[in-house]
Design a protein that fits this description.
The protein is an alpha+beta fold. The chain contains ten helices and 29 strands. It folds into two domains: about 180 residues, Endonuclease - Pi-scei, Chain A, domain 1; about 270 residues, tRNA-splicing ligase RtcB (Alpha-Beta Complex), CATH 3.90.1860.10. The strands form nine sheets. Strands 22-18-20-19-29-27-26 form a seven-stranded antiparallel β-sheet. Strands 3, 6, 7, 8, 11 and 15 form a six-stranded antiparallel β-sheet that branches. A three-stranded antiparallel β-sheet has the order 1-24-23, with no helix packed on it.
């Protein structure tokens, strides 16, 4: 399952990751029943409930959610809105901007405009919500929202509101914190009147069935390869969503060793990379179409890691540390070097997450073009999980930094993705919260041999045979990714049955490799 390392008051800069931002237990969340509940109370429930979410098109809908305790004794900040509402959360909690992007609480500035959530009760007792894009007030009827447009109320108010940030201040106390998981949309509304990101994980279950793909697989692959650069390639032009990404505002605060890479980083945002990165169109056992991709923080993430690893090695050398291996060099908490690394790895993880978002949006548009005439569709489920990263967590009663390499978090009911190879099955899973694994599971099948050995042992004919039925490249350029170079995914899944339960079994029909 890769490696999972827990360290106290120190961290080895061998991975890139981010904390999961959350809220104090008294934070109020509005539900579709017209009432607001403390998030701690919602976490005590053993069932799903209905919350308000914002779609990619800016429409407010009702979605299913669950809540859970996520971290103990966490550091807090208070975000105050212009309506006077205070929100106590961890510094890394992500708030939705008016343009649909996200920004961490620590990076919010006075005057920042957030995606607003307004509700009221009409004279008949119905809860009305105002759509941000149109300004119209609509009935929030659970039975109608899931399948068809809500009834518009009155003439449709065109009032424009902005929920702006007034201040962000550190809080002296620490508290246990909670968050929601909203698989369909990845965000939820607070009673305070704004939308925030959930504890999410990058696969999308679409409403399409297998028969819609008939005769279209090759063109879909060609369109994907035309829209998303792979390998060392980058975008020729920078789309508006990429240039508007909030993370660019922090670029000058990154390690000095990457300051000349801003142009390349911008052009690589929305590109796949190489190695074991992939984009796939898959079918589950019920012939439902899924979209899945695997990528990371590209060259900028790699260079940030290298610079910080070199810094750690130099510090170890100056301190006379005798390490079994130089790559075990570490940063100690409460030092400037630790703070700089922690800042940069969170930035890089944000870059990686947005990189996947950009590619998934392009992939979704391509599939919708071929299967729905370009009409936008609502995902039935979305999963986005990080791997090769670090988090501050509590295990066995102690606060530690957990670094997962080749592994993903698998707390109870966490959604995750465990891919096989370009010719094998993949799995959507839920974690079982196994304490002995630090609540972790495998990131994927894992290689059974090196890339150089695979190229020597297998031929293009072997590749064609092992990827039969998959629309993909079948040439020497991807020979090192042949399924035979990976462990058997069924055996890998059997060996971690105590860590996760299978939610869906997928098999790719289109695969694009770097």
């Amino acid at each position: 399952m890769g490696s999972v390392i827990a360290t106290k008051e120190a961290i080895v800069p061998a991975a890139v990751g981010v904390d999961i931002g959350c809220f104090t237990g008294d934070t109020l969340v509005p539900l579709a029943d017209g009432k607001s509940y403390a998030i701690k109370e919602l976490a005590s429930r053993s069932r799903e409930f209905m919350v308000y979410s914002c779609t990619d098109t800016g429409k407010i809908v009702i979605a299913r959610a669950t809540a859970k305790l996520t971290r103990y004794n966490a550091e807090l900040v208070q975000v105050v809105l212009d309506n006077g509402a205070p929100i106590a959360c961890t510094p890394d909690r992500e708030f939705m901007m008016r343009d649909g992007t996200y920004r961490q609480a620590r990076d919010l500035q006075p005057g920042t405009s957030l995606m607003p959530f307004y509700s009221q009760v009409d004279k008949e007792g119905y809860t009305l919500i105002q759509q941000p894009a149109s300004g119209r007030w609509e009935k929030a009827d659970v039975g109608k929202l899931s399948d068809r447009q809500q009834m518009e109320v009155g003439a449709g108010s065109l009032l424009r509101y902005n929920h702006k940030v007034v201040a962000v201040t550190p809080l002296p106390e620490k508290q246990d914190v909670y968050c929601l998981t909203v698989p369909e949309y990845g965000n939820f509304a607070l009673t305070a009147g704004v939308f925030v990101h959930n504890c999410g994980m990058a696969a999308v279950k679409t409403p399409f069935e297998a028969d819609r793909l008939e005769g279209k697989l090759k063109q879909i692959r060609l369109d994907i390869e035309a829209a998303i650069p792979v390998g060392f390639n980058q975008n020729k032009e920078v789309e508006t969503a990429v240039s508007n990404w909030q993370g660019w505002g922090d670029f000058k605060e990154l390690h000095p060793g990457v300051q000349r890479l801003d142009g390349k980083a911008m052009k690589q945002l929305g590109s796949l990379g190489g190695g074991n990165h992939f984009i796939e169109v898959c079918l589950d056992t019920e012939d439902q179409v899924w979209l899945m991709l695997h990528s990371g923080s590209r060259n900028i993430g790699n260079m940030l890691a290298k610079n910080h690893i070199n810094t750690a090695k130099e510090l170890a050398k100056l301190a006379g540390e005798k390490l079994p291996d130089r790559d075990l060099a570490y940063f100690v908490a409460q030092t400037p070097e630790f703070a700089a690394y922690w800042h940069d790895l969170q930035w890089a993880q944000g870059y990686a997450r947005f990189n996947r978002d950009v590619m998934m949006a392009r992939l979704k548009r391509i599939v919708e073009k071929h299967l729905a005439g370009g009409k936008q569709t609502k995902p039935l489920l979305q999963v986005n999980c990080h791997h090769n990263y670090s988090e501050k967590e509590v295990h066995f009663g102690e606060e530690v930094y957990v670094t997962r390499k080749g592994a993903v978090r698998a707390r109870e009911d966490d959604y995750g993705i465990i891919p096989g190879s370009m010719g094998a099955k993949s799995f959507i899973v839920k974690g079982k919260g196994n304490a002995e694994s630090y609540c972790s599971c495998a990131h994927g099948a894992g290689r059974s041999m090196s890339r150089s050995k695979a190229k020597k042992q297998f031929s293009v004919e072997d590749l064609m045979q092992q990827t039969a039925g998959v629309e993909c490249r079948k040439d020497e350029g991807v020979l090192d990714e042949i399924p035979g170079a990976y462990k058997r995914i069924d055996e890998v899944m059997q060996n971690q049955s105590d860590l996760v339960e299978v939610v869906a079994t997928l098999k790719q029909v289109v695969c694009v490799k770097g």
